[in-house]
Q: What sequence folds into this?
């Protein structure tokens, strides 16, 4: 790939001043959830908190919000009306430092309205799961001003490509995956995280192939954890490409640590969340912390 910078080292962790307060470390809004998928947005929310966010709010349908919040008293709730919750979301989204859109969202008419309403909002945004499938159904790729990180797995990527990148194919080899990520990032003006073994990240000018992670992550909920982790880093002020690269690396390393502790077969997505402190601690011990405008690397 000509004129593409290859990144081989992950960025450092965001600075965390000792005198900081919860407002200093980002407010993340997670928009998702449906009657049959309560867990996905809560996994994303807990992962965001574990990754350093000061405040995390989950917006989901009113009938299921209380049940979801019962598993995580640290999370703030926002009840959405059956029609899509446009008014409620409009009042809260501009208070967020980053938005995570999609975990457990479903593809109801109300969910589609939420995606269409939130996509143009000028806030750093992580887009995952059914929000990607809703984008794939649109006739044209919608315009957007703020930074966006898209995190499709190969199936979701195939649906996006079919509609919005005609002629491209989702390759299985590393070189083909990297080329596709670069092409899609340029066409859609986003940071593209193409998930899978050796996840690829690109903003169209740079490309990173992740080397952390193992089959521990082959469990339901792992993608929701990744969404929350990257969303947290966006909310803490990291540039989108750096947040995606660091989040992907930490997610993979957290999976490795969870697998070492519990066995690759047995570890769950919640165990990966519990291993985030260990993965971040390794970077801290290695001195990989952003200082001023520069970043040390691990």
A:
């Amino acid at each position: 790939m000509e004129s593409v910078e290859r990144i081989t080292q992950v960025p450092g962790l965001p600075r965390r001043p000792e005198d900081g307060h919860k407002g200093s470390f980002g407010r993340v809004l997670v928009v998702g959830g449906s009657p049959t998928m309560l867990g996905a947005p809560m996994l994303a929310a807990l992962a965001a908190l574990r990754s350093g966010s000061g405040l995390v709010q989950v917006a989901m349908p009113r009938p299921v919000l209380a049940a979801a919040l019962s598993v995580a008293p640290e999370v703030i709730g926002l009840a959405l009306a059956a029609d899509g919750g446009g008014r409620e979301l409009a009042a809260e989204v501009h208070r967020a430092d980053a938005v995570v859109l999609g975990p457990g969202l479903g593809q109801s008419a109300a969910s589609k309205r939420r995606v269409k309403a939130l996509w143009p909002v000028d806030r750093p945004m992580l887009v995952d799961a059914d929000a990607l499938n809703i984008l794939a159904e649109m006739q044209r790729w919608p315009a957007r001003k703020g930074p966006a990180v898209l995190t499709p797995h190969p199936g979701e990527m195939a649906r996006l490509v079919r509609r919005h990148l005609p002629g491209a194919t989702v390759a299985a080899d590393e070189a083909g995956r990297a080329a596709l990520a670069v092409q899609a990032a340029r066409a859609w003006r986003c940071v593209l995280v193409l998930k899978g073994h050796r996840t690829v990240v690109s903003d169209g000018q740079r490309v990173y192939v992740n080397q952390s992670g193992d089959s521990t992550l082959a469990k339901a909920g792992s993608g929701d954890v990744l969404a929350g982790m990257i969303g947290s880093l966006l909310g803490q002020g990291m540039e989108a490409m750096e947040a995606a690269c660091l989040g992907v690396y930490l997610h993979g390393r957290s999976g490795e640590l969870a697998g070492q502790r519990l066995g690759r077969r047995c570890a769950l997505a919640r165990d990966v969340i519990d291993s985030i402190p260990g993965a971040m601690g390794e970077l801290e011990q290695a001195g990989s912390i952003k200082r001023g405008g520069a970043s040390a690397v691990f």
